[in-house]
Amino acid sequence: MALHPTSTITDVAIIGAGPTGLFAVFELGLLGLKAVVIDVLDKPGGQCSELYPEKPIYDIPSWPVISGQELTDKLLEQIAPFTPEFRLGQLVTHLEKRADGRFTLQTSDGEMIDAGAIFIAAGAGSFAPRKPKLDGLDAFEGTSVFYAVRKRARFAGSDLVVVGGGDSALDWAIDMVGHAKSVTLMHRSDRFRAAPASVAAMRALEAEGKLRFVEGDLHALSGAAGQLDAVTIKTKAGLETLPATRLLAFFGLTIELGPIGDWGLDLADGKQIRVDTEKFQTTTPGIFAIGDINHYPGKLKLILSGFHEAALASHAAFKVVRPEEKLRFQYTTSSSELQQRLQVGDTSKAA
Amino acid sequence: MAVLHVTDRDGRNHTLEGAEGWRVMEILRDHGVGVEGICGGACDCATCHVIVAPDWAGRLHPAREDELLKLDELPAIEATSRLSCQILWEEALDGLTLTLAEVN
Predict the structure, then answer these.
(1) CB B7 within 8 A of CB B50
(2) Contact with chain A for residue B39, Cβ under 8 A
């Protein structure tokens, strides 16, 4: 693969911005290595910020209790001196080891990243929209059926059906009133997992007749050549078919292994990447796997295990990225070099 | 020995020994019948979605608000759908019968 002219060059590309990936930035940074962190979510934190931002975690050493979001925020603060570059909302679609031993990685936005080593810190895999099981769905995806709004213009003048009861569903249903020709919001119940103000705004539009709210489930899609023309919904009253040229479905996120399964790595149970316990390196030298995504005898899926693995993998990666340099093991308490990198302490004093 | 009866996603039946105080999700995961429980019981990932036999549905502790909201988010559920991470195992559940829901 030819390198894209605007490709980013870095020491290590980290796939996954969960706690393990973020802490790897720190461990690499102490060794003077720069990192680019890529994550399919639009914010750092992985499962900690996406699944349980407010739930307390009790087994982080020295933190008797910390929420998923607080842990993420603290890690971002801790790695800030190393100025990692983030590529958020992007899936790593392609990974290739080149003849010169370095790696080329491509993201879903088409960006090429040239890295000396790869850390796969992808947790349980990549988050992806949960999809309804409907016949012929594939044919409409990307033309009439969407799981997010990337181009608002695509919905102009449409008969739009929005499905879901969370903030995304309500916010977009409200936003599309006046932009789409008609807006129907459908949810299985009248319980909403959304800001009360959004529910009130939706109800107000409903009262004005500008939006229809219906309790029900998707039953079938109809149309031709990728163009949706109607959806059939199942309500308590029975089946109802309504004209629809666009469908926006918000069923939350699911986690799937994704493209990682295609990179020729040794997988345990088809889901976990086998690594050694000295370097947490995969069967491909230079590709490391840390955190929940890896597998080795005795593995425990704990955040603290991911931190430990990040430290060992970083030291091993140094030798891959800087083979000509000698790795000097130092402590942050006493090393002026590390303190300079951390931008702390009395940097005038020799180590 | 209190047991639960599980039909997995391939239609195979399993009779599993319960474990007092465990979440049903944890029992299913421990026996390797195909439940991942990615979020670890935080009622967030829905990978432990099960359909409880109708005669058992009313005998379980009712679902709380957060479980109902999560179930509402899924594209397809049944009348007796539950998230098994929200069901605590106890001896009184001996004979509980459930089917693993399709992954979605």
Answers:
(1) no
(2) yes
